[in-house]
Automatic annotation (TrEMBL):
CDD domains, alphabetized: Ribosomal_L30 (cd01658)
Family to which the UniProt record says this protein belongs: Belongs to the universal ribosomal protein uL30 family.
Keywords: Ribonucleoprotein, Ribosomal protein
Name of protein: Large ribosomal subunit protein uL30m
Matches recorded under Gene3D superfamilies: Ribosomal protein L30, ferredoxin-like fold domain
Length: 108
């Protein structure tokens, strides 16, 4: 469950020492203050991840640009990565035999 969906569902998000931050919206067209905040967070391109400490200074910066970001705790990030790895995992090949096996007639 993403942090935003947890917020909408009023589910308490577990506290984590680290926050995993992903830039999901583009930078062009944003105000200079927001661009400078993203530069300070080291987020320069879409779909890039950074790990930051869960401190009030970083949370204040994230509050400014929250509509451009996806913020996850360690537990949520690890669960999402595990789900993606399971989705990409190789599956056993499906073998289909279209030829029927020969039947042996024992009527002699």
């Amino acid at each position: 469950m993403s942090a935003f969906n947890a917020f909408k569902a009023n589910v308490p998000v577990p506290w984590s020492p680290n926050l995993y931050i992903t830039l999901v919206r583009g930078i062009p067209g944003t105000r200079r203050l927001l661009r400078r905040t993203l530069e300070a967070l080291r987020l320069t391109k879409c779909n890039r991840n950074v790990i930051r400490w869960n401190m009030p200074t970083f949370r204040g910066m994230l509050q400014q640009v929250k509509r451009l970001l996806a913020i996850e705790t360690e537990e949520m990030y690890n669960a999402r990565k595990l789900k993606e790895a399971n989705h990409r995992a190789l599956r056993p090949s499906l073998v289909v035999n279209h030829h029927s096996s020969p039947t042996i007639n024992s009527s002699s």
